[in-house]
Amino acid sequence: VQLVESGGDLVQSGESLKLSCVASGFTFTEYNMRWVRQAPGKELEWVATVDAGTYKTFYEDFAKGRFAVSRDDAKNTMYLQMNNLKPEGTAKYYCAVRVNDRGFWGPGTQVTVSS
User: I want to staple 49 with a disulfide (CB 3.0 to 4.6 A). Which of 16, 57, 58, 71 is the partner?
Assistant: First the structure.
């Protein structure tokens, strides 16, 4: 399993970013995919999930209304559109998947939001 995130950047408060996660090494269409993040000095925090097959999406409260998770099964890619970013959104963002009862995540992509 390999997951590679990209799209992180330094942005100002109120701006938008779109993160991508390219997956390989497993049958992408069969697995729910999720975004998690870790801010400096804090624990890992779930952000959003997009289900396999149904494309149903789920969000942590802070992401509702501002973030949108999606997937393109033809490209084995998951996305996270983040709008109206706030300084508390500064974190390393990871995509994650659970395959055969093991959790996998990529190296992450850094998002820094300045006020």
Answer: 58
How is residue 84 annotated by DSSP?
S
Tens digits of residue pLDDT in 64-105: 999 999 999 999 999 999 999 999 999 999 999 999 999 999
The two beta strands, 109-114 and 10-12, are parallel
From CA 17, how far away is CA 8, in angstroms rounded? 7
Tokens 């084995």 found at: 76
Answer positive or negative: Cα dihedral of 87, 92, 96, 102: negative
d(CA 47, CA 58): 9
Indicate the length of the chain as a whole number.
115
Integer Cα distance of 6 and 8 in angstroms: 6
